[in-house]
Amino acid sequence: MPEMTYLQAISDGLREEMRHDETVFCLGEDIGAFGGAFKITEGFIDEFGPDRVWDAPLAENAIIGAAVGAAVEGMRPVCEMQFADFVACGFDQLVNVAAKMHYRQGLAVPMTVRLPSGGGFSGGPFHSQNPEAWFVQAPGLKVVAPSTPADAKGLLAAAIRDPNPVVYLEHKHLYRRARGEVAEGRYEIPLGRARVAREGSELTVVSYGAMVHIALEATDDLDGASVEVLDLRSLVPLDREAILASARKTSKVVVLHEATRSCGVGAEVAALIAQEAFEDLDGPVVRVTAPDCPTPFSPPLERAVLPQVDDVRRACLELLAY
Amino acid sequence: MPEMTYLQAISDGLREEMRHDETVFCLGEDIGAFGGAFKITEGFIDEFGPDRVWDAPLAENAIIGAAVGAAVEGMRPVCEMQFADFVACGFDQLVNVAAKMHYRQGLAVPMTVRLPSGGGFSGGPFHSQNPEAWFVQAPGLKVVAPSTPADAKGLLAAAIRDPNPVVYLEHKHLYRRARGEVAEGRYEIPLGRARVAREGSELTVVSYGAMVHIALEATDDLDGASVEVLDLRSLVPLDREAILASARKTSKVVVLHEATRSCGVGAEVAALIAQEAFEDLDGPVVRVTAPDCPTPFSPPLERAVLPQVDDVRRACLELLAY
Amino acid sequence: MATTTARPAAIDDGAAGIELTGDDRIALLRYMLLMRATEERGLTLYRQGKVPGSFYDGRGQEAVSVGSAFALGPRDRACILHRDLGAHLIRGVRPGRVLAQMMGRASGVTAGKDGNMHFGDRELGCVGMVSMLPDMALVACGLAIAFQMRREPRVAMTWFGDGATANGQCHEAMNVAGVRRLPVVFVLENNQFAYSTPNEREFAVDPVRRAEVYGFPGVKVDGNDVEAVFFAAAEAVERARRGGGPTLIECETMRMHGHGAHDDMRYVPRELLERWAARDPIDAYERKLRADGVDTDAIRAAVKAEVDAEAEWALAQPMPDPATAADGVFAGADPLLGDGEAPWSRWRREAAHA
Amino acid sequence: MATTTARPAAIDDGAAGIELTGDDRIALLRYMLLMRATEERGLTLYRQGKVPGSFYDGRGQEAVSVGSAFALGPRDRACILHRDLGAHLIRGVRPGRVLAQMMGRASGVTAGKDGNMHFGDRELGCVGMVSMLPDMALVACGLAIAFQMRREPRVAMTWFGDGATANGQCHEAMNVAGVRRLPVVFVLENNQFAYSTPNEREFAVDPVRRAEVYGFPGVKVDGNDVEAVFFAAAEAVERARRGGGPTLIECETMRMHGHGAHDDMRYVPRELLERWAARDPIDAYERKLRADGVDTDAIRAAVKAEVDAEAEWALAQPMPDPATAADGVFAGADPLLGDGEAPWSRWRREAAHA
Ligand SMILES: Cc1ncc(C[n+]2csc(CCOP(=O)(O)OP(=O)(O)O)c2C)c(N)n1
Ligand SMILES: Cc1ncc(C[n+]2csc(CCOP(=O)(O)OP(=O)(O)O)c2C)c(N)n1
Ligand SMILES: [Mg+2]
Ligand SMILES: [Mg+2]
């Protein structure tokens, strides 16, 4: 199996789907001649032509709304937001038109919205957001957030083939940093199944996206404690069984994400555990997240708000000692 | 003290603030000659003129964006979304422009966005939403959701006078159904303080908005159990102390809201308790909410998704018996 | 089709060879009558407490939706607005299903999931509107993008009101349509008001003029003249079908009822209403066809009988099962849009030649 | 002000009595030079790894921001774009604070909270842009609404790019401004590209023509001619100040650098770049003033010395304290916008007369 970066894996997955299924097409700002702000669609316009790699005008509602229309007509559009942050400009089409379409009138909307998300590179308040919880709180959307190249490719394929609108969060910090073996050809990682990134028995860290790597690093050597790391991969549907199984096994859970705290995905996971695995808990469910504040630009400030390896270590050690 | 409906109290509070402070003005669709879809601003245009009661064009980003501009220039705009649902169309201005302004450049944005929210009257998927969690997950916004006429007036005054953008959720179902004594003249209910709607010792129901009334009704006679009902009133800032104090006192908590479940405010409250009051809990933290689905139109369907008195009763009895 | 009556003469637009046969013209009247009768029945049911929530209709605007939708072919697609029941009927939605929809019955088009006019029958090529206006204009652009990509001679039609022209999505849609020369027809129903807000608070300049700055034709027609609307729409649809790009058609009309049944319209000058009442689109067309010898009373009677029967059927439909309330949030498969009815005689002729 | 050099003649617009004194004209050149020198220094710092994140500049567009912002009075307000450093400098932001901002230092305009050109100095009447384009156009409308409500003869100016014209908020802003005849000036910087996207994929018709369908004047000027930009802006600002409503000014120019420093611009035809390089706005204006006897070398030298000193200052500034990272999410009080500098001689004259 070839080794790829996370970025290459996304690109590869998208290319494979476009080669295989001519209803798949891409739309977004600067994805054509420029190959996208992050070069995910580099070379695509040469292979697939400008119709299937549409350099759309600067209008996110237009991009998402047009995708809805094309999707209900049997196409499988893949929208790129230039940064996840700009999805706020296409929010209405996503949460009101795409999300509610099937419930209201039985029409499938097989579209994917790619969101280059997350911070860690001085992107500042408008190029670092992690907006996943908005979409978890908008029924009718599926939401995925891969952490590895192999998952990035397989989840993208699954998102594209799914008959529902899927919000696909690709963490910018992983683009060139995460590397791993990625199978050639087409394959799918099913939506809604978490992955045990490391097995363990004394404590579980539940996370997703870039923070999975922080979780692994932080718990790699925790005075010999056996720490399980659960990579959610999919936030909607959420793999409740996997979360509860791990919580029941280890009895101690830290939930870790980069998004801001209040009403984040961590709250949902903690609430789920507090309701369904209460009897099995040997300690509080601890959240490690960004505080409720925008992501600052300047490196010392940004480091202070984004969860760091040490923050996770500390939280885990405290909970282990509980 | 005169008795008023919830609707009259909001109207009264807004009128008082406008009379007292000429920087306060209203903008929204059909709020002038028509007095607003729900008649909150009935008669306002005659008293305050069309400049301070602006019938804006059908453009929510324009309404919220214009309010931001006026607010940083020293005005105190109060925006009305015709229904809370339409805030998705002004989402970007709210979460990106208004919310982050002070953090980024120290500029106060003293504006209020009124959201007539909630279901229960066959409004269907686009006239029944409870979008509060989106804004809890958008740092820089305050979020309030009164349940009584007295709070509705006092929280509106506090929202208007606050130097920050405040999302004010007024539940449509309460407009004409909730009645109560409301003090004349100007007063403020401070943002960030919960209210004990009923004291109790065996179980706490944490709720806000219309569901506070459901909570009270459902627990009024629960085989003699002493049930505390905590009305959050303010979701940002959240009164963590009041929540934890009640949880510690009763050791059993049901969190109830009308919004959909995943990543809702109930998740945040449950997660807070699971982390901070773990030791004091004598049972799981139970959430009673709408399921993750749009609000259907047809009465039997709508009743099936919105939390009903019986659902709350059942959850409380089960938890009491735990 | 009311075949018992004498047929009026066929007419055409004098230029592009677009023709309405006598039967077509009778059909236009019949659909307008059917729309009005269905909405009147709906309003009665609402007043009887059988329609939950609010009630919206298109009283006075029948010529707009009927005239424009009549120009669509079976494989064309429509995103229909809350004032446009006529368009649904032309696509083939039965009045009974509309009434069941209003009443939240299981046999309504959305099976009780949504209400009012927030529906579209996917089996008839319709994508139901959302409440947010004019979001469907962008969805229509997306439908048109699919047609364009697949090189199919098909067209998407979308309706929006004067109020919706102030919204950013209206601009995004027309701009994208202009840049890509999409096969989409924008029908702007200027009924003078957005809820209570009059035109002068919505825009400073007649929005039909925007078409030219988006790079496509904009035409303004008398929205109470069903044939004028039809010819403008047919020309636009056929231009789009041939690859000639989008058109904006502004239909000048008047909303003769309140925004919803709860709205007493005190903000509308009585004199304005009276002026428009004298120009009722159905009365005017009925006079025209009657002058041509058509027995319009017979058509009226047939429509009334049809709506009576449909209403009876609708009232007999059950409410949806509460156990299904949260079903269908996600799709398990990819049901596609089906094709609609297309009563314009052209389509029968084409089918015969094919 | 470079007072050592000979002064060029004063000029006016020949009609509205808008005048630029010789000193004004020198100031225009100086601000353009200061913008370029500051940005060049910023780029150097970026290449040295001292600027985190990305780097954006307005190379080649100096005449747009300088010419337009120069028309503003002290109590006017500005929502300045990422290509418009000149406007910040005219309002009174020191180059050192800009460089500190780029480097994320505590003394940057946003104290490290935001970066790049995403700032505005509230004490100088600026509301810093957000990244979402063109959101500030609506904020500018809101500023103008405040002026209008309080009957103050003040104006808001907002800049946006050709790409941003496709966005719905651009429409909402211009529509609202037209309906309310707001005292707002929209400066459209058409630099031929939105990132990599050329004009023809953004709109089908020159967007300056939209002004007429929003009901206000639209003018197109050579965006590389600082005086032409100034006169158009001054006329628009003064019309707005007198209650004459908004204006759209399209400045035709070229982005001479990549979208950001990471962008090699391979999508731009080399020939196009060369054509525009020959029309550099600073070179052209320098030639003009030199022909009038101005010692432009002295101005250049003074600007260089100033930027050297400012850069030194900026480099000596500390990084922000991590403990403050989450401070300031909420305001505890209502700090108001302050007034900006207004170097146009008119304001000194007015102050003297007052
Ligand atoms: C984005 C959005 N904001 C607000 C509303 C609430 N609303 C419903 S209908 C209406 C007026 C619509 O006017 P117009 O577009 O002229 O359509 P008409 O009802 O007159 O046919 C408003 C403001 C809405 N539907 N969508
Ligand atoms: C709403 C929105 N979507 C996407 C972007 C990402 N983006 C940043 S700059 C840019 C191009 C802007 O082009 P233009 O408006 O012409 O301004 P210019 O940079 O050329 O001055 C894009 C697409 C954005 N800033 N805002
Ligand atoms: Mg209207
Ligand atoms: Mg540009």
* The number of domains of chain A: 2
The CATH class label of the largest domain in chain A is Alpha Beta
Distance between the amino and carboxyl termini of chain A: 43 Å
Total strands of chain A: the figure is 14
Task: Describe the fold and architecture.
The complex is a heterotetramer, with two copies of chain A (322 residues) and two copies of chain C (354 residues). Chain A is α/β, with parallel strands linked by helices. Chain A has twelve helices and 14 strands. Chain A has a seven-stranded mixed beta sheet, sandwiched between helices. The N and C termini of chain A lie far apart (43 Å). Chain C is α/β, with parallel strands linked by helices and 354 residues long. Chain C has two domains: 9-320, 3-Layer(aba) Sandwich (Rossmann fold); 330-354, no CATH class. Helices cover 41% and strands 10% of the residues of chain C. Chain C contains twelve helices and nine strands. Chain C has helices spanning 22-47, 62-69, 85-91, 95-102, 135-149, 168-180, 210-214, 226-241, 270-277, 281-291, 296-315, 345-353, and strands spanning 11-12, 19-20, 77-79, 156-161, 184-190, 193-194, 197-198, 218-222, 247-252. In chain C, strands 3-4-5-9-8 form a five-stranded parallel beta sheet, sandwiched between helices. Chain C starts with 10 loop residues before the first strand and ends with a helix. Chains A and B meet through helix 4, helix 6 and helix 10 of A and helix 4, helix 6 and helix 10 of B. Residues 161-163, 191, 193-194 of chain C line the site of one magnesium ion.
